[in-house]
Amino acid sequence: MTTPTTVKRSQFAAFLNVGTAAEPEYALIGDGVTTATINYNPQIREETYIHQDSASKDVERYAPEFPLEQTCRAGDGVFDFVDGLRQARAVEDAAKTDVVLVYLYETPTEGKYPAERQPVSVAIESFGGDGGTANKINYSLNFVGDPTPGTFDPATKTFTPKA
């Protein structure tokens, strides 16, 4: 029996593709971000069958989103990419990229960690802040479709789909 260990937030990394689909360039989401939680937003179907008094609930699907608030740090790859989308008022395909979620708390194989690549649509919510403070940008990475499981090498920032 193994002894459970606490998984720290730093052991769950997210890398945003700030390049293109043809030539991905992954930047770590981290600088300027103090909290980051994926909301899975389960869509529940509830039915009460005619022969029962109690309802049955089933998860039909998920509608995940990854809302982020980031202190604006010019020169940070993630901020520069997202700010470029904001300035362009990017929509539809122009607002799409992907994020790789990396499970650094799991055992790596040859330096590669279990991961999943998820297509996302970037939605900018707000930009600005109070006088005398650092600017903030609030945005969400809205998941599009299903993820591709695989591995990620943090040293080379390369995702490899599962065979």
Word description of this protein:
It contains one helix and eleven strands; from the N terminus they run ββββββαβββββ. The longest helix has 12 residues, at 77-88. With 163 residues, the chain is mainly beta. The protein starts with 11 loop residues before the first strand and ends with a strand. 7% of the residues lie in helices and 46% in strands. It has one domain: Pnp Oxidase, Chain A (Roll), CATH 2.30.110. The strands form two sheets. Strands 1, 2, 3, 6, 7, 8, 9, 10 and 11 form a nine-stranded antiparallel β-sheet that branches. A two-stranded antiparallel sheet has the order 4-5.
The percent range for strand residues is over 45%
Radius of gyration from the CA trace?
Answer: 19 Å
> How far apart lie the N and C ends?
30 Å
CATH class, named: Mainly Beta
